[in-house]
TrEMBL record:
E.C. number(s) listed in UniProt: 2.1.1.203
Binding positions (S-adenosyl-L-methionine): 181-187, 212, 239, 265
Top-tier EC class: transferase
Similarity comment: Belongs to the class I-like SAM-binding methyltransferase superfamily. RsmB/NOP family.
Protein name stated in the entry: tRNA (cytosine(34)-C(5))-methyltransferase
PANTHER family: NCL1 YEAST -RELATED NOL1/NOP2/FMU SUN DOMAIN-CONTAINING, RNA CYTOSINE-C(5)-METHYLTRANSFERASE NSUN2-RELATED
GO MF terms, alphabetically ordered: tRNA (cytidine-5-)-methyltransferase activity; tRNA binding
One GO BP annotation of this record: tRNA methylation
Biased composition (Basic and acidic residues): 473-482
Subcellular location field: Nucleus; Secreted, Extracellular exosome
Acidic residues: bias regions: 728-746
Keywords assigned by UniProt, alphabetized: Methyltransferase, Nucleus, RNA-binding, S-adenosyl-L-methionine, Transferase, tRNA processing, tRNA-binding
Amino acid sequence: TAAEKQPVCWERPVQISLSTCLKCTIIFQGWGAGYADIVKENKLFEHYYKEQGLVPEGEFDEFMEAMREPLPATIRITGYKSHAKEILHCLKDKYFKDIQELDIDGQKIEAPQPLSWYPDEQAWHTNMSRKIIRKSPLLEKFHQFLVSETESGNISRQEAVSMIPPLLLKIEPHHKILDMCAAPGSKTAQLIEMLHADMEVPFPEGFVIANDVDNKRCYLLVHQAKRLNSPCIMVVNHDASCIPTLQINSDGKKDILFYDRILCDVPCSGDGTMRKNIDVWKKWTTSNSLHLHGLQLRIAVRGVEQLAVGGRMVYSTCSLNPIEDEAVIAALLEKSEGALELADSSADLPGLKWMPGVTSWKLMTKEGQWYSDWSEVPTSRHTQIRPTMFPPKDEQKLASMHLERCMRILPHHQNTGGFFVAVLVKKAPMPWNKRYPKLRKDVSSSAAAQTGGPPAAADVACLPEGSVEEEGERGGTEAKGDEDVEEQAPKGASAAQEAGAKQDGVCGPPSKKMRLFGYKEDPFVFLTEDDPVFTTIQSFYNLSPDFPKLNVLTRTHEGKKRHLYMVSKELRNVLLNNSERMKVINTGVKVWSRNSDGEEFGCAFRLAQEGIYTLQPYIRSRMITVSVEDIKVLLTQENPFLSKLEDDAHAQAKNMGMGSIVLKYIPNPNNPAEPQCPIQLCGWRGKTSIRAFVPRNERFHYLRMLGVEVFRDKQGLGLKPRDGAKDAEEEGAADNEVEVDFENGDENTSSEPKTDNKLLTRSKITVCGRGGWFASSLQFNTLPL
């Protein structure tokens, strides 16, 4: 207090004489210092994990020391894009070399190394913490590269252990995938990448449905997914423990949607994240795991209910606690009565060090009371402590579960965070799903055919323990969902009749009850094949006959359509058949945007860069093949005259009318110095000029791929050449810097489309070319996104 000049614990309003408050673990470094670093000590944590015996004998001190160290920075290159190899080449040649042997604040910075267990050197780690990367002037260029490439979706800054679950799912492009607790979305991004392993296929047969219970976090999830520009992702907002069973139309009949792969990364106490979430040191108690165990088990049960027979579900937590890990898996296996089994994944990630799951553990209350068996728990604690939290008593049953196949990653083994992961394979329908559901007969029979066994129940979302026999009479929202199915799909109704019952393919909004929390989403309105919009689009872009018009949607059924989006055929099926039981936050990739000036050139819609890789295979005109030098001109100059292009591109552009165009670069395998991946950009052919419609970070990305460095000074206000660039050649180039205003072009010559986009922050960018090509200053006012 000010009067006594003594520190006061802010959690408990009492004066303390010690330098450390034992309850909230805050160090007071003298009066007036304010908040100081949290002490990375928690005696209860140490005592608990010593007793559990999870850490090999003699390694506990090393384990605790690793937990106190900052987590190293880890990045992952998006593997599904054909640009991944070029980004890796750029990282190795231009950035990692500059980082080697640096000394920052007395800490020697080691050169980044690839994660030995991640395929194709697509993930890297270094002993630099995120704080050092952000703050150090010596790493400013590397930090700008990471930020820019992350925004454009080419790099993800993701914790190493977080990358493990998607790899163990073994995703194929045809898989239907559910991510039950998806936010913030780094694992979801991996799932999308794996679906698009073959970039020659614009619409994989599979899809990802990413769910999160928190409405606001769903929008963070949308931001992550949008960076990947996939038509095969849908973000929904539901409680994972009772996420609704969805339906699809299969050969004119309603079928239950079973997923081939499910990622069940449940909410947890997070004590494996202490290296990056320092607050956990102060807040950790054993009661956290006791409170979460029931929810984790309910989510896992709901997941395996929706898993197809033969499918895989990965259960994971960032906690080391057996109550949240092996206890949940053991309870799930016991409930399944042989329908599930733990898969042996020991050979799936060679190079990854992990500890096998344990078969015995104890439970401790926050007061320090230990219990080894349910029979020891007093009746007064039966509401907080449940039988499923203890290992099975039957030794034979316990051995048959093979809990040793679970994988626990300890921080000190490979300098990572703590993590737990288990891979479950579904061998048969769940025992409580073997009775016929309350659906019409053709639904039940088709579900039985799909699973290869008895028909699966439509919904067992909130099924309480011990009520398997009462399945047919259960109530709640899921029972209501069954009634909706009967009303929506009466006996004998054909697919055509059901489609006709929909209001012109309008999906949503969901029921009023589902809209109580969060924002009201615009509807998803699918276009028909004879929609007037397609008349001019078809002729202007000369779309191929196999273009899937039915997969195009908009977000309004009133007034003019501003943007057109595309989804895969399979996601369209899901949307049209589940609009009343599913709260969809976002889906689809933007492929066209309305341009008010475009009508006079033949089409009111211009191409959108987000969807160009999805749409381009169907476009047979309005395409200009460009060279590397052409791309450099287009991305660094605003509205360059057609004469600035090389002869081949110039001739193509002269023979093309005004309007939206595709600028396509085809790699030359005989010239390895040039990028060896295709590049497709949206552009606009003006009267005498041409421009590229590419968002800022994507411009930077493509320029880097072409060997051009792009970076800003630390304040983002002035220009800054490459570090150490003081030779005469670059000084001469700097004298010729040209400042270009991206908005104020010559309207008489460019005939560029007007956009209603908001202004981006005005900033200047330095572009330095290799071999003294050029150095010019670009000033961005607006960019058409």
